């Protein structure tokens, strides 16, 4: 009974928040409703006994993807009035098309029954579903798993090639160079006679250049 | 786990990774684009040889099929990719695109197409399609400092994601109502039981998703803008090989697992084909930009090629395969000529820029004329044979309307192809173009010879296409 | 084992609530005294006395603070997004609490003994970023927003390496259940064979809880107090409690993943006399001390250094270590066998035809 109650709670919130994603005027609210929808979908997975999928949904979509969504949407300066202007102009056409499609869908699905369920239900083997998934993904579908990896690699190459700019002007910290520096390369211990100063000389290590990204200069030879 | 079937794909991806590594680890100050392009062409050639040698069968857990059809499609796609890469060799350098990632992305995209051609499972279909598309989205936007290129990439990406969403929805419906992801099992389930409406809805969404990738009407809206905005070398690629791969998927899905729904999808394909042919020929008339012209031209060509699928039999499939072969060849050649349209370093895409090319550069004008005549379907060029085959196949299957519309639109289409020829030969000469690169000329020469002398290679192409169609329709692997 | 009453729906609900209370009440007390403990330890590090006026040794200080916090006026900025502004601290606090549902305090003692307990904890800790991000945005203030953005990027970055570290541990366990994770450490705690991962995990935990030296989201010297600059009274109190509860949670997670949870250090007489929950508490306290110690001794990281550490050092390192662990376990045959996996299901081989 509790499970049924929770199913309806999750399902109701899921549907309501999915509706709010579309209806919300503020894009940040829309993203937050989307996150709520993800979260409730995870709850439904949990009730269906797919605890691994539920957790992965929360970790990947809610914990990472949606954060970046929110990140971007929060920083965008979206003009709501302009958006609504376009919406009002196209709303009648969109509504008409949507209505026709919906009517078709209802007409088609009216006499619907989900066909061969028995074909899809695998025999219970006593494993947790994470173990079952692992077995299928890493053995039978290893080719597709690796292909997914290549898809992600392509996305990564794309992100780099479209956004990375090697800025010549910015000064970057090169930790290896910093660590390679030795006190003797940069410090001079001078012992000037009191009152005479250093005769206006500034002692520099040979090969000293003002740029940070140059290799560390050679050891200093004291000049007098 | 018969992994030897996928050796060409595996080798191609490994070569792509090696090229990528070389580019990343190489000297940052130099551009490795040239080296990467050579390596990529070499790996594609190698993969092509491996495809020819690859055994037939279903393997890798039943998700991957290799048969004569897959081999034919893979060879055509690889050929298209190599030609496009050769087109890009010089044009990229002149356009200031020095990314070594460019050919690498093309290699990954081609690998995706090969996976698509070999799909025996709905998951393979989707992953292959996404691998191909992701690389293309990036390639379209690769000239990131130019507004047009970014716009092309973004448009293609947004609409492509929408299409992927529709496709996925359709796939999940097909899976839910047939109980399996494997083509063979779906076909069995469909032949056995009554066809549920859910399956029909799923089939429509799958067709919509795939037709989007073909840029056939009514899912063509992105094509002209993307073709115009993307760098010419990318457009050359985009207009060729990916269409072949999308056709491979469409043919395999419609004639294989969804074969039992033939009566339902036939009408759908016919409507799409008619709309594509009509829009492709009418909208192209008003174009003044050669890349936009090519976009509408490709929409029209997709319509003709779909005619063969609509026929739904071996003759029709053979016709479509031959059509695709000729299309890829003509297309690469035409883009080689378009890439050569460069004046004082600036790429020219206006048709008017071709004025008087016949006197300025007879060889280039000759090539362009051959491709335009061929696309218009003038005998004895390659395009004629493709069109003839699909018309014959349509008529034999009783699709008179389709064949009639095809012939009328061919006549209309001839008008704008011939207009390009008129501008080249009868208008007062404009300023001369920059000197052509040898790689560009080579592509134009190869494609031109294949187009003009198609009669000579007709027999083997026809035989290979017929073998491919037979292997697909027989449903047996071998 | 359970009484009949507990098998009914009502009984089950009451039992679960009682279990939850049994975990949460000590936890809240712990949070209260953690604030006291932190002030005392920091004072000791800085050679001061710390709170010593309220009650004996200042032990009533947390209560004094709580009463002060509750009686202050709640100020909501005029341009703030009211609903979200108020939800954010509640969210942070609630997330820090619900994570405790799966923490085992003794063999099999957990409110919910999930078989994906590790993933549950990881999921909950990855949600923590929302409280901060929403607070930063809803405050409608530049400083708060900057703090929120920093935090979002920081927490997402370090989650990646935390995930890989957890994978390393799970490879050695062969189960996602937290109780199994502890039982797998009967012979040797994972902090010994996986020492580098232990270090990476602890440092990432510092970043994940926004503690010094990674407290850039607050950064009081540059962002005044970051995402909580506009908060006052009870809503500020909830953030405060949430942060400390998260610290205890991450310490508990470290103890469970690497220090054997409720296990005694040696499985011999004097050690086994002490009950498991006390061992767990002792381990948590040790780790909490290190949390405070680090705060007392390390200067704050610069933001680019923080990102560099996360993406360019921890990520490749933990990835490499994960591959190494998997390779080692495969090569030596030490890979834990799930009892159900002894045979390969026949379905896997099918699908191939010649």
UniProtKB/TrEMBL annotation, chain A:
Signal peptide: none annotated. It is a multi-pass membrane protein. The keyword NAD applies. Keywords: Cell membrane, Membrane, NAD, Oxidoreductase, Quinone, Transmembrane, Transmembrane helix. The keyword NAD applies. It catalyses: a quinone + NADH + 5 H(+)(in) = a quinol + NAD(+) + 4 H(+)(out). It is found in: Cell membrane. The chain crosses the membrane at residues 6-24, 31-50, 56-78, 90-112, 141-164. Belongs to the complex I subunit 6 family. NDH-1 shuttles electrons from NADH, via FMN and iron-sulfur (Fe-S) centers, to quinones in the respiratory chain. Couples the redox reaction to proton translocation (for every two electrons transferred, four hydrogen ions are translocated across the cytoplasmic membrane), and thus conserves the redox energy in a proton gradient. This is NADH-quinone oxidoreductase subunit J. It comes from Endobacter medicaginis. The lineage of its organism: Bacteria, Pseudomonadati, Pseudomonadota, Alphaproteobacteria, Acetobacterales.
UniProtKB/TrEMBL annotation, chain B:
GO terms for cellular component: endomembrane system; plasma membrane. Residues 119-413 form the NADH:quinone oxidoreductase/Mrp antiporter transmembrane domain. Its main location: membrane. Coiled coil: none annotated. Keywords: Cell membrane, Membrane, NAD, Oxidoreductase, Quinone, Translocase, Transmembrane, Transmembrane helix, Transport, Ubiquinone. It is a multi-pass membrane protein. Its EC number is 7.1.1.-. It comes from the Bacteria. The chain crosses the membrane at residues 6-26, 38-65, 71-88, 100-117, 154-177, 183-212, 233-255, 267-286, 318-341, 362-385, 397-418, 442-469. It is found in: Cell membrane; Endomembrane system; Membrane. It catalyses: a quinone + NADH + 5 H(+)(in) = a quinol + NAD(+) + 4 H(+)(out). GO terms for molecular function: NADH dehydrogenase (quinone) (non-electrogenic) activity; NADH dehydrogenase (ubiquinone) activity; quinone binding. GO terms for biological process: ATP synthesis coupled electron transport. NDH-1 is composed of 14 different subunits. Subunits NuoA, H, J, K, L, M, N constitute the membrane sector of the complex. PANTHER family: NADH DEHYDROGENASE. NDH-1 shuttles electrons from NADH, via FMN and iron-sulfur (Fe-S) centers, to quinones in the respiratory chain. The immediate electron acceptor for the enzyme in this species is believed to be ubiquinone. Couples the redox reaction to proton translocation (for every two electrons transferred, four hydrogen ions are translocated across the cytoplasmic membrane), and thus conserves the redox energy in a proton gradient. Belongs to the complex I subunit 2 family. This is NADH-quinone oxidoreductase subunit N.
TrEMBL record, chain C:
InterPro entries: NADH_UbQ_OxRdtase_su1/FPO, NADH_UbQ_OxRdtase_su1_CS. Keywords: Cell membrane, Membrane, NAD, Oxidoreductase, Quinone, Translocase, Transmembrane, Transmembrane helix, Ubiquinone. It is an enzyme of class 7 (translocase). It catalyses: a quinone + NADH + 5 H(+)(in) = a quinol + NAD(+) + 4 H(+)(out). The keyword Ubl conjugation does not apply. One of its GO terms (biological process) is aerobic respiration. Its main location: membrane. It is a multi-pass membrane protein. It is found in: Cell membrane; Membrane. GO terms for molecular function: NADH dehydrogenase activity; oxidoreductase activity, acting on NAD(P)H, quinone or similar compound as acceptor; quinone binding. It comes from the Bacteria. Pfam families: NADHdh. Belongs to the complex I subunit 1 family. NDH-1 is composed of 14 different subunits. Subunits NuoA, H, J, K, L, M, N constitute the membrane sector of the complex. NDH-1 shuttles electrons from NADH, via FMN and iron-sulfur (Fe-S) centers, to quinones in the respiratory chain. The immediate electron acceptor for the enzyme in this species is believed to be ubiquinone. Couples the redox reaction to proton translocation (for every two electrons transferred, four hydrogen ions are translocated across the cytoplasmic membrane), and thus conserves the redox energy in a proton gradient. This subunit may bind ubiquinone. This is NADH-quinone oxidoreductase subunit H. The lineage of its organism: Bacteria, Pseudomonadati, Pseudomonadota, Alphaproteobacteria, Acetobacterales.
């Amino acid at each position: 009974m509790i499970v049924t109650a929770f199913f309806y709670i999750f399902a109701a919130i899921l549907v309501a928040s999915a509706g709010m994603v579309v209806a919300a005027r503020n894009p940040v609210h829309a993203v937050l409703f989307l996150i709520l929808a993800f979260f409730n979908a995870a709850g439904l997975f949990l009730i269906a006994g797919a605890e691994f999928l539920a957790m992965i949904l929360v970790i990947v979509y809610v914990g990472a993807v949606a954060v970046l969504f929110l990140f971007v949407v929060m920083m965008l300066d979206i003009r709501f009035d302009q958006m609504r202007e376009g919406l009002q102009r196209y709303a009648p056409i969109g509504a008409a098309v949507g209505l026709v499609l919906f009517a078709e869908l209802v007409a088609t699905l009216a006499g619907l029954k989900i066909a061969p369920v028995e074909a899809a239900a695998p025999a219970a083997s006593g494993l947790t579903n994470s173990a079952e998934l692992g077995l299928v993904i890493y053995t039978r579908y290893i080719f597709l798993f690796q292909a997914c990896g290549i898809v992600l690699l392509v996305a990564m190459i794309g992100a780099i090639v479209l956004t990375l700019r090697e800025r010549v002007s910015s000064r970057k910290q090169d930790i290896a160079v910093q660590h390679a520096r030795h006190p003797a390369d940069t410090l001079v211990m001078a012992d000037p006679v009191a009152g005479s100063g250093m005769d206006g000389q500034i002692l520099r290590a040979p090969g000293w250049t003002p740029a940070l990204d140059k290799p560390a200069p050679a050891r200093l030879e004291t000049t007098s | 786990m018969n992994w030897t079937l996928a050796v060409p794909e595996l080798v191609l991806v490994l070569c792509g990774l090696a090229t990528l590594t070389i580019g990343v680890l190489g000297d940052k100050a130099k551009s490795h684009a040239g080296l990467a392009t050579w390596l990529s062409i070499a790996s594609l050639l190698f993969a092509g040889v491996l495809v020819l040698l690859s055994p037939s069968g279903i393997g890798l857990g039943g998700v991957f099929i290799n048969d004569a059809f897959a081999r034919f499609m893979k060879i055509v796609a690889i050929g298209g990719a190599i030609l496009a890469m050769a087109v890009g060799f010089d044009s990229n350098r002149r356009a200031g695109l020095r990314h070594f990632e460019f050919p690498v992305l093309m290699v990954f995209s081609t690998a995706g197409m090969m996976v698509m051609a070999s799909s025996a499972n709905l998951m393979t279909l989707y992953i292959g399609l996404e691998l191909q598309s992701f690389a293309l989205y990036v390639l379209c936007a690769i000239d990131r400092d130019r507004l047009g290129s970014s716009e092309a990439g973004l448009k293609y990406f947004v609409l492509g994601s929408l299409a992927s969403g529709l496709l996925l929805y359709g796939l999940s419906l097909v899976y839910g109502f047939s109980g399996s992801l494997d083509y063979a099992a779906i076909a069995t389930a469909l032949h056995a039981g009554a066809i549920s409406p859910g399956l029909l809805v799923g089939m429509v969404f799958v067709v919509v998703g795939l037709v989007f990738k073909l840029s056939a009407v009514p899912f063509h809206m992105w094509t002209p803008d993307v073709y115009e905005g993307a760098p010419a070398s990318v457009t050359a690629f985009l207009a060729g090989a990916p269409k072949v791969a999308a056709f491979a998927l469409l043919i395999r899905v419609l004639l294989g697992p969804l074969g039992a729904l033939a009566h339902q999808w036939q009408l759908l394909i016919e409507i799409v084909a008619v709309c594509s042919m009509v829009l492709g020929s009418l909208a192209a008339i008003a174009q003044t930009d050669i890349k936009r012209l090519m976009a509408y031209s490709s929409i029209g060509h997709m319509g003709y090629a779909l005619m063969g699928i609509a026929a739904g039999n071996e003759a029709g499939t053979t016709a479509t395969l031959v059509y695709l072969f000729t299309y890829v060849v003509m297309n690469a050649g035409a883009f080689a000529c378009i890439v050569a349209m460069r004046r004082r370093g600036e790429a020219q895409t206006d048709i008017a820029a071709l004025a008087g090319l016949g006197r300025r550069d007879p060889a280039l004008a000759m090539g362009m004329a051959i491709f335009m005549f061929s696309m218009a379907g003038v005998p004895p060029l390659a395009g004629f044979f493709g069109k003839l085959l699909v018309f014959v196949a349509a008529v034999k299957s009783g699709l008179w309307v389709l064949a009639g519309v095809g012939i009328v639109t061919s006549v209309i289409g001839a008008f704008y192809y011939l207009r390009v020829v008129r501008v080249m030969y009868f208008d007062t000469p404009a300023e001369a173009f920059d000197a052509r690169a040898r790689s560009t000329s080579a592509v134009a020469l190869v494609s031109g010879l294949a187009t003009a002398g198609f009669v000579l290679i007709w027999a083997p192409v026809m035989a290979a296409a017929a073998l491919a169609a037979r292997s697909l329709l027989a449903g047996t692997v071998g | 084992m359970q009484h009949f009453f507990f098998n009914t729906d009502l009984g089950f609900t009451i039992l679960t609530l009682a279990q939850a209370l049994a975990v949460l009440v000590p936890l809240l007390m712990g949070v209260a005294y953690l604030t006291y403990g932190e002030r005392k330890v920091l004072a000791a590090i800085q050679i001061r006395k710390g709170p010593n006026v309220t009650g004996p040794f200042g032990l009533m200080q947390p209560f004094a603070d709580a009463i002060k916090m509750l009686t202050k006026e709640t100020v909501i900025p005029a341009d703030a997004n009211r609903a979200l502004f108020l939800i954010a601290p509640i969210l942070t606090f609630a997330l820090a609490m619900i994570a405790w549902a799966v923490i085992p305090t003794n063999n099999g003692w957990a409110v919910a003994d999930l078989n994906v307990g590790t993933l549950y904890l990881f999921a909950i800790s990855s949600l923590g970023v929302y409280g901060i991000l929403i607070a930063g945005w809803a405050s409608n203030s530049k400083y708060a927003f900057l703090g929120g953005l920093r935090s979002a990027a920081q927490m997402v970055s370090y989650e990646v390496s935390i995930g890989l570290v957890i994978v390393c541990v799970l490879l050695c366990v062969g189960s996602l259940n937290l109780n199994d994770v502890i039982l797998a450490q009967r012979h040797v705690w994972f902090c010994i064979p996986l020492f580098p991962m232990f270090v990476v995990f602890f440092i990432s935990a510092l970043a994940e809880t926004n503690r010094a030296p990674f407290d850039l989201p607050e950064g009081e010297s540059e962002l005044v107090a970051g995402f909580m600059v506009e908060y006052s009274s009870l809503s500020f109190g909830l953030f405060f409690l949430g942060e400390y509860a998260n610290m205890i949670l991450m310490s508990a997670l470290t103890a469970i993943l690497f220090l054997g949870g409720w296990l005694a250090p040696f499985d011999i007489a004097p050690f086994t006399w002490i009950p498991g929950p006390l061992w767990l508490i002792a381990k948590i306290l040790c780790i909490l001390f290190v949390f405070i110690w680090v705060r007392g001794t390390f200067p704050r990281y610069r933001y680019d250094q923080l990102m560099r550490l996360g993406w360019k050092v921890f990520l490749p390192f933990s990835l490499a270590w994960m591959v190494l662990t998997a390779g080692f376990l495969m090569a030596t045959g030490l890979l834990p066998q799930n009892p159900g996996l002894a045979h390969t299901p026949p379905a896997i081989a099918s699908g191939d035809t010649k």
